Amino acid sequence: MRGDIRSTMPQLRGKIVSSRNNVLPLSKNKNPNLSNTPILLLLHNEKPINVFPHLLGTTYSNIEQTLESMAKSGPKAHLVARGLLENPIQKILADDPSTLESEMRFVEADFKVVSGVIDILLQDGENKFVVVEIETRAREIAVAQVCRLAAGFGSARKASSDDIRKVIVCQQYDENVVKSCEGANVELYKVDMTRIA
């Protein structure tokens, strides 16, 4: 079992060795915490693809939340809905927010507001809050989502909409998303690879 747990992609499951306040499936000596930790190993085509609980960047994913998500949409839809790239992009932005823009500072990941959960909350060089929605493929619904989240955050903080930037970071996007972003004053960033050599 330990081999299966450790063979899951680290960019998806993050840390699995126990540390401080988080309950994780492996102890510091890399042995399973079977006496006090329930473990959920997610398989696809008989290969382990994720393990719960785990810590990815600043986001702790436990078994209960994962099972609730899977119960709503099924295991395959759970993976598609979250997307294989969303957690790694969230970790990159949490660890190095200047990837998005110089002078950008990390505030919090998975920030809860009445209208949902902000994937990443940042603050720019002008002290404006930046509400970031991360999508593998951005669709028009993502534009509406980031607008709702920004409005919820602004309402809770009693902040003007001028002091909050709305951002979508994605790997792919539908053509109509560009126009929707322009109309809603949402910044759209595409993650891609550029050949250097």
Through-space gap between termini:
41 Å
Determine the CATH topology of the largest domain. Answer: Trna Endonuclease, Chain: A, domain 1
Beta fraction: 25-35%
CATH class of the largest domain: Alpha Beta
Provide the helix percentage.
Answer: 25-40%
Average pLDDT over all residues: 82
Residue runs with pLDDT of under 50 for 5 or more positions = none
**CATH structural architecture of the largest domain:** 3-Layer(aba) Sandwich
Tell me the strand order in the biggest sheet: 5-6-7-8-9
Count of all domains? 2
Secondary-structure element order, as H and E? HHEEEEHHHEEEHEHE
- Tell me, what's the shape? globular
Count of DSSP strands: 9
Offer a concise description of the structure.
The protein has 197 residues and is an alpha/beta fold.
What labels describe this entry?
single chain; about 200 residues; alpha/beta; Trna Endonuclease, Chain: A, domain 1; 5-stranded mixed sheet
Secondary-structure blueprint of this entry?
Blueprint (H helix, E strand, L loop, with lengths): L1 H5 L3 H4 L26 E5 L2 E6 L1 E3 L2 E3 L1 H11 L1 H8 L3 H10 L9 E9 L2 E8 L5 E10 L1 H18 L6 E10 L1 H10 L1 E5 L7
Parallel strand pairs: 7-8, 8-9
Antiparallel strand pairs: 1-2, 3-4, 5-6, 6-7
Helix pairs in contact: 3-4
Characterization of the model:
With 197 residues, the protein is an alpha/beta fold. It has two domains: 2-81, no CATH class; 88-190, Trna Endonuclease, Chain: A, domain 1, CATH 3.40.1350.10. It has helices at 2-6, 10-13, 63-73, 75-82, 86-95, 140-157, 175-184, and strands at 40-44, 47-52, 54-56, 59-61, 105-113, 116-123, 129-138, 164-173, 186-190. The strands form three sheets. It has a five-stranded mixed sheet with strand order 5-6-7-8-9, with helices on both faces. The protein has a two-stranded antiparallel sheet with strand order 1-2. Strands 3-4 form a two-stranded antiparallel sheet. A hairpin with a 2-residue loop joins β1 and β2. α3 crosses α4 (75-82). The model has no long low-confidence stretch (mean pLDDT 82).
